[in-house]
């Protein structure tokens, strides 16, 4: 049971993609008139919103209005409420982005009427009626990712394994800061069943870190395939949103441009035709 709970906490971050894509840079300081102008970023477990700094800077340079959610990580409902609160404040349609555990959060909160598209950054994507914990069934979490649970039920990434499990491609200085500033998550959150699954009615994109040690690679690819997401693979650690920010920003930019052409009233496609699914 302890190992299962630890695996769940992995939901904090991961992503990967080819070297050629990882060098992507903003191509314009203005966005298409048809593009969605707002982007809402949702962090995962063991982290806070500050890790999105480089993605924020890249997107604002492109002309987007970016909002960063600060999940309390005290419960599933608390995190969903924080994200909905941010969406309520948007002045128009938005693309909703989640990393790791943040993927579970955007799956529930993404049914908000202002959300036009979803971007899963090495993230979880349960269906309605499923728990986050169930996503790990049949998969093996890499041994590098170890969670320690305190007496009050909150989990932390084991300090001496933080670099290998969470941010193997970050500098020592960045790893030390991320480790010292990690935010524990209430492990009970992984056992809560979702009521909604926004990916069933909204187009989705997925950035998958191929060197992610928080998730089984098969699990990441299978989740993305199930939701019909357009996949971008990137050679990066679980902290892909931090170490490969330019790649992540480029995918968000693509989602914003393509989501802007989708009518918010268009019916959901049962075969996910709107999501341009790709194989692993």
Overall structural class, as computed from helix and strand content, comes to: alpha/beta
Could you list the spans in which at least 5 consecutive residues all have pLDDT below 50? 1-29, 265-280
What is the C-alpha radius of gyration, as a whole number of Å? 17 Å
The amount of helix comes to 25-40%
Q: What would you call the shape?
A: globular
Topology as a string of helices (H) and strands (E): HHEHEHEHEEEHHEEHEHH
Separation of the first and last Cα atoms: 30 Å
What amount of the residues lies in strands?
A: 15-25%
Most strands sheet = 6 strands, parallel
Number of helices in the DSSP assignment: 10
Folded structure, characterized:
The protein has 280 residues and is of the alpha/beta class. Helices cover 31% and strands 15% of the residues. The protein is built from ten helices and nine strands. The protein has helices at residues 2-9, 19-22, 53-62, 76-88, 101-109, 162-166, 172-180, 217-226, 240-243, 245-259; strands spanning 38-42, 65-69, 94-99, 115-121, 147-149, 154-157, 185-186, 204-209, 230-234. Strands 2-1-3-4-8-9 form a six-stranded parallel β-sheet, with helices on both faces. A three-stranded antiparallel β-sheet has the order 5-6-7. α3 links the parallel β1 and β2. α3 (53-62) packs across α10 and α4 (76-88) crosses α5 (101-109). The radius of gyration is 17 Å and the shape is globular. It starts with a helix and ends in a 21-residue tail after the last helix. Mean pLDDT is 87; it is low at 1-29 and 265-280.
């Amino acid at each position: 049971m302890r190992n299962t709970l630890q695996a769940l906490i992995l939901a904090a971050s991961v992503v990967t993609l080819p070297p050629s894509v990882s060098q992507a840079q903003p191509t314009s300081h203005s966005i298409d008139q048809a593009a969605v102008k707002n982007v809402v970023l949702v962090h995962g477990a063991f982290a806070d919103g500050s890790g999105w700094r480089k993605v924020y800077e890249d997107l604002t340079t492109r002309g987007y209005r970016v909002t960063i959610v600060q999940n309390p990580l005290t419960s599933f409902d608390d995190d969903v409420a924080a994200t909905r609160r941010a969406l309520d404040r948007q002045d128009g349609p938005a693309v909703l982005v989640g990393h790791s555990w943040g993927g579970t959060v955007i799956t529930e909160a993404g049914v908000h009427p202002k959300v036009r598209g979803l971007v899963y950054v090495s993230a979880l994507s349960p269906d309605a009626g499923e728990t986050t914990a169930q996503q790990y069934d049949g998969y093996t979490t890499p041994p590098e990712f170890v969670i320690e649970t305190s007496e009050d039920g909150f989990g932390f990434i084991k300090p001496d394994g933080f670099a290998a499990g969470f941010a193997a491609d970050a500098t020592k200085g960045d790893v030390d800061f991320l480790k010292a500033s990690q935010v524990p998550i209430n492990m009970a959150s992984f056992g809560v069943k979702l009521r909604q699954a926004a990916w069933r009615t909204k187009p989705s994109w997925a950035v998958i870190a191929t060197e992610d040690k928080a998730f089984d690679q098969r699990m990441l690819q299978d989740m993305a395939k199930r939701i019909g997401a357009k996949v971008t693979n990137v050679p990066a650690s679980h902290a892909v949103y931090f170490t490969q920010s330019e790649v992540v920003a480029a995918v968000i930019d693509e989602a914003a441009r393509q989501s802007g052409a989708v009518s918010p009233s268009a019916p959901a496609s049962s075969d996910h035709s709107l999501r341009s699914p790709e194989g692993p």
